[in-house]
Amino acid sequence: xxxxxxxxxxxxxxxxxxxxxxxxxxxxxxxxxxxxxxxxxxxxxxxxxxxxxxxxxxxxxxxxxxxxxxxxxxxxxxxxxxxxxxxxxxxxxxxxxxxxxxxxxxxxxxxxxxxxxxxxxxxxxxxxxxxxxxxxxxxxxxxxxxxxxxxxxxxxxxxxxxxxxxxxxxxxxxxxxxxxxxxxxxxxxxxxxxxxxxxxxxxxxxxxxxxxxxxxxxxxxxxxxxxxxxxxxxxxxxxxxxxxxxxxxxxxxxxxxxxxxxxxxxxxxxxxxxxxxxxxxxxxxxxxxxxxxxxxxxxxxxxxxxxxxxxxxxxxxxxxxxxxxxxxxxxxxxxxxxxxxxxxxxxxxxxxxxxxxxxxxxxxxxxxxxxxxxxxxxxxxxxxxxxxxxxxxxxxxxxxxxxxxxxxxxxxxxxxxxxxxxxxxxxxxxxxxxxxxxxxxxxxxxxxxxxxxxxxxxxxxxxxxxxxxxxxxxxxxxxxxxxxxxxxxxxxxxxxxxxxxxxxxxxxxxxxxxxxxxxxxxxxxxxxxxxxxxxxxxxxxxxxxxxxxxxxxxxxxxxxxxxxxxxxxxxxxxxxxxxxxxxxxxxxxxxxxxxxxxxxxxxxxxxxxxxxxxxxxxxxxxxxxxxxxxxxxxxxxxxxxxxxxxxxxxxxxxxxxxxxxxxxxxxxxxxxxxxxxxxxxxxxxxxxxxxxxxxxxxxxxxxxxxxxxxxxxxxxxxxxxxxxxxxxxxxxxxxxxxxxxxxxxxxxxxxxxxxxxxxxxxxxxxxxxxxxxxxxxxxxxxxxxxxxxxxxxxxxxxxxxxxxxxxxxxxxxxxxxxxxxxxxxxxxx
Length: 829
Known about the structure:
Layout: E1 3-9, E2 15-19, E3 22-27, H1 35-40, H2 42-53, H3 55-64, E4 69-74, H4 76-79, H5 94-97, E5 99-104, E6 117-123, H6 142-154, E7 160-165, H7 169-177, E8 183-188, E9 190-196, E10 199-207, E11 213-217, E12 230-236, H8 248-254, E13 259-263, H9 272-283, H10 289-298, H11 304-307, E14 310-315, E15 330-333, E16 340-341, H12 356-367, E17 372-376, H13 383-394, E18 402-406, H14 414-434, H15 439-452, E19 456-460, H16 463-466, H17 477-498, E20 503-507, E21 517-520, H18 532-542, H19 551-564, H20 569-581, H21 594-601, H22 608-622, H23 626-635, E22 642-643, H24 644-651, H25 664-679, E23 684-688, E24 695-699, H26 702-710, H27 714-735, H28 743-750, H29 753-762, H30 765-781, H31 785-795, H32 809-828
Parallel strand pairs: 1-4, 4-5, 5-14, 6-7, 6-8, 7-15, 8-12, 12-13, 16-18, 17-20, 17-21, 18-19, 19-20
Antiparallel strand pairs: 1-2, 2-3, 9-10, 10-11, 13-14, 22-24, 23-24
Helix pairs in contact: 6-9, 9-10, 12-13, 14-15, 14-17, 18-19, 18-20, 20-22, 21-22, 24-25, 24-27, 27-29, 27-30, 29-30, 30-31, 30-32, 31-32
């Protein structure tokens, strides 16, 4: 049976603690410490609170209590005291050893029958304040907190239906109005107490549809759900349990919410995930909510200044366990709100530094009614990461979310583009059924589906298309073919825009010439560099050496890099890699010759930010040894993500001997060389092996690859073709049969057909026949039945006699496989 301790102010204003009408202590208010003193010295100062609660007499009663739970029945004067910091002797906090809750003395609505529990989460961290100014300083790590909560729910073994709401007031109101069964509400956001004409008022800081700060008065939350359905509210937000009149958590308990947890004062965000995991793990194990809050406080004992910040309010018996039923937790909807599917080349960094204002402005552009936006900027300026971050953050604004396609591989093929769009609009099975339709019929089906699709299509690196639309002065057969492919792609994109499909493009070239197109950030402006503060933070996030320097030294260097580069993100990353590799150069000398390097990098037609990037690349490239420079140039033949085997093959002097078996020593050498380039930010890791989290695939930033390729001589390019083809042969063997089991491999093989086709031209004899068999299988697996049929028939024409199995057994087996694969194409068609 829980103990109820009454704390009231007597006529002299002293606090009287009484247990079952037995007076335990009388304390003057000025003898009690405030929150700052308690956080500075929680154990010594907290003992004064414990004495005011009854000291040893209270402790004896608690130790004899079956529930080990203390309910504080407080009058308004006592509500303002942070009793949760009461400390026992030594280094023990009362609220961590026993349950400690504040009682709201009113009945608890009866709980619904046990069944699936709804878990409703909302996380808000606005991009800009109410005046539209970017919010500087610390950003909430909501992804870590919600990921940890998701893991706790997944492992509970209870029937829980979890979902994450968009961070808006409207989404919260709608969700609470629709509650129909037992539910938990978890809000992680900023909170505050503001002065109003009616006195202090608690607010939650949520967002509007464009990521702008939107204040929700605590009183507006009251009564939004039917009584008894919302059983637990957790506010992972500062100042949600402050004082009396502006106490949001207490107000909700007074309105009938059985159990509410809020924060008195400012709760440290890095502790939010530990607190929430311990709370929900315990509650979903069937324990009382009082015990769950005690376990959550115990999880914070390594930070005693924070243990007393969470405050729990409960109605009579509201601390009992949640209504639970065993079952399979459904937690997939606890990820980011909205549907999102982006290619490997288009992924948002976390955090995205210094772009809050641009994200908000981009969202406002779509809110104004614009359907087509092209983000324009110099190479490496962050167009792709800005667009990817926008897609991730605002996908919920489109009912069918955001889907992305990338031309970063610089391969523009109309058939592949239509295939991707068919897959988007009709799904994998539908795309296979439509794969053999004529080009014009496919385009028509795409346009028909696009008119009904309520989503945003992101097209990255669209300059790959635009640059091929301009006829060359001397156009050979290949250039004419590439221009025709680009024209077909652009024609379809134009028709999609004309039909009203929302589009987001990134491009160095502008405009794209699409109906209703709006250039971002403006008609006469390119995406600017980061602020000096954000640029410095980016440098420090990339450089490991800077972390070893004295704080004053590293911050001065980082600020200097931010200024010198004009905030160019890729240039900053390259300089960070170069700084780590240049340990012989002291920090004060690192930028000494930067102006001369900028002058050397200037070329006709280069914009200032492009010059900055070119100078940063040249510095990093020139510091490489000649052999390393040659290796970097060699890798530039891969415009798509690649395995380490690609490096082993193009770096080997005689790659033909490696087509089937690549020695482990060559692979180890390749991985070491690739890692050295990653350390200098000349390469990126595209994917990791799941079993040990080591790099699996690699890729260039397009701007870096182009600078490396610009230094590749025609003789070198010709010499590299054998290794390039060898990689295509190896990748066909790697992908054959496995692309169905490995989605990442599926995407990579799909992007690498240039190398696979190069192997077709380079191989001879039965090696070529077996490769064409695998290539035909891959084309068929990707739904390209027409291409597969054409390839297989050309490999061994149907009217050509089969080889004699006795005289040519290996050839006969290869031809048999080709014909079997061709039969499969006919069967499916």
